[in-house]
Amino acid sequence: MNPPSFSSTFSRRSFLQQSAKLGAISLTGNLTAEAQPPSTAVKPALPDFCLFTKHLIGMEPPALAEHVAALGFAGVEAPIRLGGHVVPERAAEDLPAFVEALQKANLKLTILTSGINAVSADQHTETVLRTAAKLGVKYFRMNWYQYDLKKPLPPQLDEIRTKVKDLLMLSRELGIRPLSQNHNGPHYVGASIWDLESVMRDYPTEDWGFAYDIMHATVVGGTSWPIQYHLARPRIGAAYFKDFNWASRLKPETCPLGDGMAAGPEYAKLLRDSGFAGPVSLHIEYLKAEKITNAAEIRLAHQAAAHDLAKLKAWWAA
Predict the structure, then answer these.
(1) Global pTM?
(2) To bridge 211 with a disulfide, which of 6, 117, 238, 303 should be the other Cys (CB 3.0-4.6 Å)?
(3) Across the 318 residues of the chain, what is the mean pLDDT of every consecutive 10-residue run?
(4) Is domain 45-317 given the CATH code 3.20.20.150 in the classification?
């Protein structure tokens, strides 16, 4: 049976349809498992899986923590930025309470997703990072850099070299590691990995790494994405999993894990076989609601994450 296709909108009809599909898959999976003899093979150790909670913005921290813990994740990757669970100007006051709610559910703030790509008063960089470091956060995802395609590209990389120096110095002092996510699109620095990696070479791997996203890598690299992976591998601090299909020419559309074209199983195998020990973050971006507003949306979000986490664990153990 093919995995379910979750709707991109939260309608009552789509919710009921997806609930029925998930229930059928769960029942079938249980019967199949009971029919199989117990395996004596040693299963590979699973990494710490965390859930990117962008699709859960709007939930109060205790409810969010309960939701994520019930799914079996070890932590969250949380947007702490404009429009996120905590806004930068309130980080000193609100971030400790957010982390406390997670800890009460035996979760951690694994990755803090920020709007930071320089030491900036607008982003309250020092306050956000100092507060996070005191709370035990080990990784933060930086904001992206973009090219102006009307100007020569190499000088723009030199500008990034200058801009990032103070941020990396501050991060090193605090013991929190900056990560840059690869994206797809004509303006993103690091979409092809080579350009941003050349800037990163000025620093030790522990000072600056990649949050390597297999969906974006597949969109950009096609069948050559393993070249990008092997270039980035020494600096991969976190691994991102999500999936996509081509909605139209040059337009990727996210979808449930395993339903699309991203090289998720191959990526999981490469990471596992290389001894990757960093966090693995699951992104549920095909649920398009801006904020969780009712119980039906929460239930569908729970089903989506449960489905995708099961798929990811199966890939890791294969």
Answers:
(1) 0.87
(2) 238
(3) 42 42 40 43 76 94 97 98 96 98 98 97 97 98 97 97 97 98 96 97 97 98 96 98 93 96 98 95 88 88 97 95
(4) yes
